[in-house]
Specification:
Length: about 575
């Protein structure tokens, strides 16, 4: 039986025919196809169902569709093909519909590009523009070439890199709706998203299946897809409704290991692996691992790494620095697991600028499997955040005592996100701080200080005998602003000396970033990984904080809030 063609597909074919006709300067006819395509797009019922329900008569009655076009529609519905379209495709064997999506590229230009440069796909068009070939064509020039490149970038969703907080849940939604499709053996997120980079250029998906056509068919129909940019037998490029670009690679089942390694990247990591393969008389590419012409089994990533004499390297570590050397020495650290946290040590409630009550936050924390939480509302000098003064802090402590009596198997810790004032002193008096289980500090005001002054201000606070944790140490917010000027080498040294733990904040701050995580760990500084949740949904930030910690090679023992609450509190007083 033929595949069901959707209205969108039939309308696209009509548009395509119109373009082919326009490329040949045919008069009037193209417009008829375009009007018909519009009419089909505005239907609320699928043509297949309409035809089944009331036959040719109803198809004839669609506005803009005359008798000869009605016949073409019925042909498409009943056979899954359109003879005229197929014949034109043979004559113009390039992606007419895709290429003419670019502003400045009409059907005649598309034909010109095909005839002179053999451009068949958008990818080839991009390459031709990048290598300067378009500028030399008749009727086109450097400005057309530039416009074409810009058009392709726009089409691919080049609206800047998205933070992982936005990209990862979106990609998971897509993966979940595709997982059920028949024949799929693997379906994974690859690229920078799998490496959990802090910002993501595009969503790379990779699948193996025994039924590639089924997967492709389902994929292009996902409600998240805004448009299909390019569709080939093994690769579909799309733009999603959130403005991001994405690729889906569809591969045969047996070459998965090498393909997953390749499309996970990073590029730099791949290059190191390829060089290593070469030195061992092997060849590694996205197609597999080969000795002479013979394929070496590579069903899993682990097998690929093992064939290269390497320990498996977690995706978060694949950046192309020293991870391959470490893997060769069998010295890949056992990274902190997602799910290793027992507590969250930074949470704001409706006592300051959070949305939920202490009890609500505690209930949700318990429900997601945590066993303790530190309430860290802002302090008085942060008036816009309704920061707490000493009096309200003591009242909050009493409230926490009350709730703790009710909660079973969960403990709320009394704490604060105490502002470090301009002179390095703390925003609350010592006698109030002494009533807390732990004291956390951070910078929120007077960010524009000279590097040396800011560094001294922070050091002054870290030396305070009651301070346990320094929150979001550099002050940056991803995609929003850079951090303040500060000498982090010195801050890390002082944190070690005075036993202050540094935070890996999982909110959009992602602060410390992975480079400083590694540096802090090498200096023997302890870390905490927190959500900085201002509402219950934001406990999701813990995962991004953990990703950041893993990218900085953190192990479970490096992170204090993997301990039980008793051990954690003991570690603070030691
Ligand atoms: P992004 O999208 O900018 O956040 O970063 P990636 O790493 O996801 O980059 P993307 O989407 O261009 O490519 C996905 C992976 O495919 C990449 O991490 C490694 C592999 N790859 C792509 N192009 C090349 C290449 O030219 N050489 C090598 N060795 N690998 C490549
Ligand atoms: Ca990517
Ligand atoms: Ca990509
Ligand atoms: Zn806050």
């Amino acid at each position: 039986m033929s595949r069901r063609l959707t209205n969108r597909e039939i309308a696209n074919r009509f548009d395509e025919i119109a373009l082919y006709l326009r490329a040949q300067d045919v008069a009037f006819k193209p417009q008829a196809f375009e009007v018909a395509a519009e009419g089909i797009r505005s239907l609320s019922e699928e043509l297949v169902d309409l035809y089944k329900r009331c036959g040719k008569k109803c198809v004839d009655d669609i506005p803009g569709i005359g008798k000869s076009l009605a016949d073409k529609i019925i042909e498409a519905i009943t056979t899954g093909h359109m003879k005229e379209d197929n014949e034109l495709k043979k004559k113009f064997p390039f992606d007419m519909l895709g290429i003419t999506q670019i502003p400045d590229v009409g059907p005649k230009t598309a034909l010109l590009l095909y005839k002179h440069l053999h451009v068949k796909t958008l990818t080839q068009l991009e390459r031709a523009a990048k290598t300067g070939k378009i500028a030399g064509l008749p009727h086109l020039g450097t400005s057309s070439q530039r416009n074409i490149l810009r058009g392709i970038q726009f089409l691919k969703g080049g609206q800047g890199r998205r933070i992982i907080h936005e990209a990862l849940p979106y990609a998971r939604l897509i993966v979940d709706s595709l997982k059920k499709i028949h024949g799929i053996t693997h379906l994974d997120i690859a690229g920078s998203l799998r490496r959990r980079k802090e910002t993501i250029g595009d969503i790379d998906l990779i699948a193996t299946t025994s039924k590639p056509a089924d997967l492709a068919h389902a994929f292009v129909r996902l409600p998240q897809i805004e448009r299909v940019i390019e569709q080939g037998p093994t690769k579909i490029a799309v733009r999603y409704k959130n403005g991001m670009a994405g690729d889906l690679l569809i591969l045969p089942p047996d070459e998965y290991g090498a393909a997953l390694v390749h499309f996970t990247g990073s590029r730099e990591h791949n290059i190191l692996l390829r060089e290593r393969a070469k030195r061992r008389g092997l060849k590694l590419s996205e197609h597999g691992l080969f000795k002479a012409e013979k394929r070496i089994t590579n069903r899993t990533e682990k097998q690929v790494y093992a064939s290269l004499g390497l320990q498996e390297i977690p995706p978060e570590m694949r950046v192309g620095s020293d991870e391959v050397d470490r893997a060769a020495q069998k010295k890949i650290p056992s990274l902190i697991a997602y799910g290793a946290l027992k507590g969250d040590l930074q949470v704001q409630t409706n006592w300051s600028d959070g949305d939920a009550s202490i009890e609500q936050m505690a209930q949700v924390a318990k429900a997601i499997g945590l066993s303790y939480l530190a309430v860290t509302d802002h302090t008085q000098s942060l008036t816009i955040a309704h920061g707490l003064d000493e009096k309200r802090l003591l009242a909050q402590g009493k409230e926490i005592d009350k709730i703790n009596k009710k909660l079973k198997g969960f403990r709320i810790l009394k704490s604060t996100e105490c502002d470090i004032k301009k002179d390095g002193s703390l925003d609350l008096k010592d006698e109030a701080l002494k009533t807390l289980d732990l004291v956390c500090v951070s910078i929120h005001s007077n960010r524009a200080m000279k590097k040396n002054e800011m560094t001294q201000r922070i050091i002054h606070a870290l030396k305070h005998p009651l301070v346990n944790i320094f929150f979001h140490p550099t002050g940056r917010i991803v995609n929003v602003r850079d951090g303040y000027e500060v000498d982090m080498d010195l801050i890390i040294k002082v944190a070690k000396q005075y036993g202050v733990a540094l935070e890996v904040n999982g909110s959009q701050r992602l602060d410390l970033h992975e480079g400083y995580v590694r540096q802090a760990l090498e200096a023997g500084v302890k870390l905490v990984v927190n959500s900085d949740a201002h509402s219950p949904e934001q406990f999701a930030n813990l995962e991004y904080g953990l990703a950041q910690a893993r990218r900085g090679w953190a192990k479970k023992v490096d992170v204090l809030n993997t301990k039980t609450v008793t051990e954690f509190l003991r570690s603070l007083s030691s």
